[in-house]
Each structure stands twice: as structure tokens, then as C-alpha cells.
Amino acid sequence: MLNIRFMEGASMKKMDFHVHISNDQTDVLQSIENFKSLSERNHLSAICIQSAVMSSNGMHPNCNEKALEIIKGNENWYAFASLHHDRDFVEQTKEYMDKGFRGIKMLEGKPTLYRNYGYGFDHPRFEAFFDYAEKNAIPLDIHNNDPLIHWDINKISERALKKGWYYDSTFPTQKYFFDVLENILDRHPGLHAALAHFGFYSDDIQKAEALMEKCPNLVMDMTPAMIIYDQLSNTPDEAKAFLLKYQDRILYGTDVSNCIEGEVREMNDTKTLLMRAFYEGDGEYEIGGFHIKGMNLPSCVLEKLYFHNAMRFIGKE
Prior knowledge:
CATH topology: TIM Barrel
Structural class: alpha/beta
Distance between the termini: 36 Å
Strand order of the largest sheet: 1-2-5-6-7-8-9-10
Low-confidence stretches: none
Number of strands: 12
Number of helices: 13
């Protein structure tokens, strides 16, 4: 059973830093209603849409424009833009920031997008972008890599397999994606970057800590893949020490889309419960098929990671 502290956590202000609008059949008005309902159900005071003009589901060419329509007039709703690959990245970034976006979402480090585009973050065209983003303190949310089990047909989950996230020998290795990102951070240690899904360093906390030490503006976007919480729970003392040490650099998000019904809503509810059990709980839990060890974090830390850190990262605090 979940303990009484969950009542305390429920009342805290929260910002879901990582929501998507990848369901093209859900129009602007319905998306707004869905996000309002989500906010009421999950006690959200703010959301941040992470736009994606290309995702594993295909192209969403009008995603940026749709994001701006959704957040217009809704207090504490924000959005990160996504880059079109048929235009200059730096010029787009200037344009998007002028239009009111709070940063840039970068999904190009996901192996499926590497396949779709035919190149990754190590392509020369990204270098000028990262240089500009570093010099101008542009917030980035970077999805790089995926869990190692996605390269193993015998271990990948049925859900991930159905989504096309199994990577056979035609894909680069997980190590390739780690090396690419770490080389970028070597060249641009001042980037204001959030690593989505803990950067998939959850089974190598020492590497995550080394990156945080080297890059003072780096933060961890703790949006599930749920496996990262299972892996962090395998080394609970090390995980808790990391969360306490970097308590000002941890962001909360759920990865929910704008069509919040059926399986999507069930998955969002499971992820929300799992994260709260991990952060607020003081026991061991089985949630969504994953083993979770509660970190029992102090209220002052929860308030930061649930709300204030993300607001500060996007320049609103």
C-alpha cells in the first residue's frame, strides 16, 4: 500500500514538463480540453508541450503551429519547438524563440529518427546549432538513445516492439548514441540541456553524475520510460544521493499525448503513480510490471522537482 505522504504530494504544485501533441486527429480545442482535464486530475499547475515535427509515428509538419494555438491564453502553459530538417536550424531557432517558444525539443537522438533522417546529432549541420544554443542559453530537451533492452529481441517489451522500437543490426549500437551525446557535451559544456528519460543513464549513475559535474547547466528530465525507475531502484542509496545532490536540476514529466483516453490515459495514470511512489514512497512497490523502491524525499526537494526546477529552466522563475 502507498503511504499517507501521498496526500501531501498530491497537493503540491506540479509542472508536467514533457507532454506531446502527436495525435493529429485530436484538434486544438479538444487538445486544450484534454490537457485541462489532465491538469485537474494530476494537480498540474503548468505544462510544457514538447513539439515533434517527426516522431516514431511519422511526420507532424504543423506541430509547432498547433502547439502555439494550444498554449495561447492558457496561463502557465508553455511549448518547445521542433526543428524542420529542410531549413537552417539556427534561423529556425531564432524564429521560434521570437514567437514565444521556451526552447527546442530534440527527438533526433532516438534511434527510430536516426533511421528516418539518415543521420544523428553528429551530423555537421547540428554543430552551428549547438554552438548558437550554448552561446544564447537556449533551453533544449534532448531525447538521446533508448533502453539497452530495445536492442535485444528476447528482452524488449511487447509494447515497445509494437511501437517499432526494436533495433536490429541495421541500427547503430546504444554505445554509439551515448558517445555522440557525450562528444557534444565535451564541445559545448555550457548547453542549457535537459536529458529526457534521465538520458538512459539509469544503470550508470556514476556516468550521469560525471556529466552533471562537467556541464553546470545540464538537468535531468525524469519523464519515464518506466524502466529507468526500476533500474534506479536497483541502487537506491546511490539514486537517492544523486537526487539530493542535484535536487535543483531534476524535472518532472509524464510523456502523455493530447489524446488522453483509453490506453494513453491508463499508461499516464500508471506512470504518475510510479513516479510518485519512487519520489514520495518509503517502501517497495510493484507498479506497471516494474519494481520500485521509494526514495522518501523531503518535501522541500519534492517542491523543487515537481514544479520550481522546470519553471526556472524555461526562464519563468
